[in-house]
Design goal:
The complex is a heterodimer. By secondary structure, chain A is an alpha+beta fold. Chain A is built from twelve helices and 39 strands. Classes of the chains: A alpha+beta, B alpha+beta. Chain A: One of its GO terms (molecular function) is peptidase activity.
Chain lengths: ~625, ~650
Amino acid sequence: MMRFCLLGTLLTLSLTTFAQSYSSFSIPLALRENAHAVIRYQETEFYVKDAGEAVTRIKGAVTILDEKGEMYATLVIPYNKFTKINDFEAQLYDSKGDRVKRIKRSDMESFTANSGANVIDDSYVKAAVLKHQYYPYTVAYAYEYTTRNMMFYPNWKAYPYNAAGTAVEKNTFRVSVPAGLELRYHEQNLPSPVAKGQAGGRSTYTWEVKDLRPVQTESYAPALDLLLPRVLTGPAEFEVEKYKGKLSTWKDVGTFYRELNQGRQALPPALVSTLQEQTRSLNSPVGKAQKLYEYLQANTRYVSIQLGIGGWQSMRAEEVAVKGYGDCKALTNYMGAMLQAVGVKSYPALVRAGEDEDDIRTEFPSFQFNHVILCLPAGQDTLWLECTSQNNAFGYLGSFTSDRHVVLITEDGGYLVKTPQYQPLDNLQHRQALVKLAENGEATIQMKTKYTGLQQDERAGVLHHLGADDQKKWIQKSLSLPSAEVQQFVLKENRDRIPSVEESLSLFVRNACNRSGTRIFLNPNLLNQATSVPLAGSVRKNDFVLAQHYTDLDSIAFEIPANYAIEHLPEATKVLSRYGSYEASVQVTGTTLTYVRRVVMHKGRYPAAEYPAWVEFNKKVLRADKNQIVLVQK
Amino acid sequence: MRRMLLCWSLCVLSLAVRAQDKPVKFGVINSTDLEMKAYPADSSAEALLLYDYGETEFVIVSNEICIRFTYHGRIKIFKKSAYEKATVSIRYHTGSHRYAESVTNVKGFTYNLENGVIKKESLNKDMIFNERSSDTHSTQRFTLPNVKEGSVVEYSYQVLTPLSYYHNPKTWTFQGSMPVAWSEYRITIPNSLYYRMIMSGYLPLHISENKPINIDLAHFGTQGMAYRFVVKDAPAFQNEPYITTPGDYVSKVDFELARINIPGTVTKNYSISWNDLNSTLLSSELLGGQISRTSFMKDIAKKIQAQAADTTAQLEAAVKYIQQQVKWNGYTSIYSKNLKKILETREGDSGDINLLLIALLREMGYDANPLVLSTRQNGRLDTTYAMLKQFNNVVAHLDLERKDVLLDATDEFLKLGMVPTYCLNQAGWLVHRTKARFVPIRPTESDREFEKAELIIGEDGELKGTFTKSYGGYSGWSAKKTLKTEGPDKFLEAIQKENPSWSITKHDFKNYNELNQSMDATYELSMTDYVTQAGNMLYLRPMLSEGYAQNPLKADTRAYPVDYGHPIEEVFVATYQVPAGYAVVEHPKTAVVTLPDNAGRFMYVVNVADNKVTVTSRVVIRKTIHFAEEYSALKMFYDQIIAKHNEQIVLKKGN
């Protein structure tokens, strides 16, 4: 009865209960500075009814100061079959605080949240737009929805959306759990910690922030997700549909995923015998795995199917065998089942994939993942397989899943481990070219470039996805030459563990060098110039992040016209730093000048105080890349 | 032969009548298609549409006349990158029964050759998904099984569209992202419905037939015409930069309802001639109706007239008033539901805003009228056929002393008489009771940039002084917009980013709020990148970073015209003071390069006087559309500019 009452009161809370002024002029000046929008207040309550259901109530008001803050004028509530939107109300106020408009749930429109043609999904959003012609204006909102997918508890952000240019007057987050249920949470950069309370047999946890000034983005900074105050929450026990799970450790994460996907590995008997037949002659598990990976790549394709238990339960392996397609869970499960059929052990690994995705928060076990890959454990020789790619080299992960924490799903639950990191020499661009210069600035270039590891990803994509004509067009576009004709090209792929692409080009170039009167001006670094440096700006606030280890090697030989002599050669340059090193020089042998450039850069997160040094390094590199050779008529 | 676009009109269609069966039967495959390793005509194709068949009929379903579209496609998959062709999405309208579309008879097969035997697997129910895309649309998606390199996939479906929801058959394109071996479109049209049917594109028709046919369509009659069109071996459509829209170049057939003529009832005319189209628009409640009632603007009209003295001031005030009252939501249209209400809700599309402007101007006593047009993205206006659906935007038109003046109140940065670049699409139709006609849409402005530098060369190679860039015309339009939306800090940051070696000590932005003047950005700065020091020599790159370094036209050849939309003018004048003791020993010679027919001109002059060197570069592209056959000349024009722009000046220390 108690519960009913509580719910009842909360439901009748309407916006007007918060009889506060929505006048835009009452915002403190300090918060308006550099802000596009100001959160006047926001209250988020996550009210856990039991392990299988919770109600989320969100109320707030945001003042939009200019066009860039207008994202807040669109109110979006995502939903799927686990979510029910109970209530919604929103109002629009002008700068004086006078109400202009009011809308209800029936005024909202529904859209699919589906993002691509090759995706089958059942998530939707309800959305409403409350825009006003004159800035500033205020949007007040209140809504409530019920969730029955309790694998996920809220990830609360002190700055909603972690957006730059937004100030916050007040933002509150409260979680209420019934007796017997535990709340787990992880606080990140919060000004003040949780306030705990007890009432009516329930525990409450409250976080609050006040008067937060807007943050400004800085280039090369870590993602705002990692910097801004937020609270991750999660259950210790939960239910979703008929499944029950525990979630206190990574082990629990693994146990639940395993249970959810148990009994889905059976394969058609005919397939099992075919696979055994095909791998019989191969002795090593790696050899068998490679054979099966080739089979997988030839016989299945990736279709994103976000159905099932919150998108976490896989299609059966049998089904994949029949249909020949599946999503990451299904294809990984299928590959695991095939390996099992030939006696090779493997484990799925949950991963947060994406070149620009941050690593998971390892200190807070929860379902922070968006993808699954397969792991064949073997100590130093552990193999990782990306089962959704029809083209990846065997055992290569690329920038999508390398160098990050994953959770291995084993018989005894989950284990936190790391995928391999590719080193500077793994990610190589090695170029050799011979440039025959004519007096009029035209040149023919024979060029061979080997790209490996992460530096080959893009070209491998071009090789696999584009036809010959489009490959040529792509190459032509990618060349930073004044005006180039691709006369011949060959792209050749080598599917080693660290894969590579070899590109051979024959080019005809206009304006490769510049003749002014009796002189020829030549920039020997024709093909790989640094084009921009990070801005020095004012005081650096955040650390800076270099995203990749890599090495660039260039060796470009120039045959100069016979009737010219060297008037000026640039001095050799060497710039060393802990972020990377740069060397460039020109050597002369008869009528041939050879330009050699070597750049090695190191992935990492570096402290803000070193930012000026990093800018300086870049400036020196940029400068050296512009050095020119001057030839003069004999 | 300038305009290579072929337009076939209906009257030239052959009258040959032959009973024709579909050349490909659903579910029946020959092994040669499965054995094919590559498409001989385009060996690089990732997939080939072997058969692309569409058929449109009119049928009566539950007393409603409907368009029934039947599709049958068969695709050969060569490469893995084409696997996504095996997942198909069909979007359809939902709602009450007179407005709801339905998708039925979804069928499909995947064929593979396994050890010389054809393996055929069908699309099952559990591979078909229905998804609600929005409150008004759903999407039927299906994905075919076991697709591999070498597979052939085949599918068919029907879409039923009530005429009360949409009365035009969907456009059929004979070309797409993959080559098509056989593209066939059939349509049977009852004589009681008269459709304007327009074919466009560059590909010839392999078959074009029509014949009278008996139909059974209740009160829509018993007589109709059956048409059949086939295009064979259509290459994949290639997109290129600087074109209006691919839709202007792809081969297609398009329909627009012109008249309904049911025996015994009233004949209803939609548009058929340009005059009909004109009256349709004038009598439309959404267009002519809206601008015929303007009295709600009386007060503001009087106020503007009282405050502004001459015509220009009055027009500027009217545009400004509408622009400030109603925020543009980013969409274009030619209609408005309720102008009065728009003034209250204060947000609208271009139809709302510019019809409101017309209403205001009319109330002020001007003969303002709608000029409907097709944006560049929407495609070129076909003046041969009066098709209403070509139009997607409207601006206000005034005839001022026999000059066509166009006004657009959607954008606060447009100078009076200037329309946004996306409207620069050759011509529009003036909707007018008595003087309806085509009006050319000529850019009143070019894209103008004027740069002026006054710099002192230091002996250490540093340049110091001032640099001013003036953004005029369309360049000013976008620069002012950027400065306003991004703010001066971001604007400066972008300049700094483009020129890493510039140390800007002072900056000043002028006239960014003046519609009628160029915006000036002035910097006091020093630069380190443009002088190479070598012993007693200094080599100066006099164009700084402002010259052309790379040819903007990268491709070797071109299939479609290069369309800039507006003329371009770029002027650079820099004066350098030579350090004491140095003399100019060599400098670039004067050059003038012109394009044929005065289409473009480049002039480059270096002047040395006393201790000053002045460099002047002027690039003008006067002609906005350059046809494919003029492409190589245009490309060469840029190459010649690059050569000149990269020349250097040699200074030597005396003694």
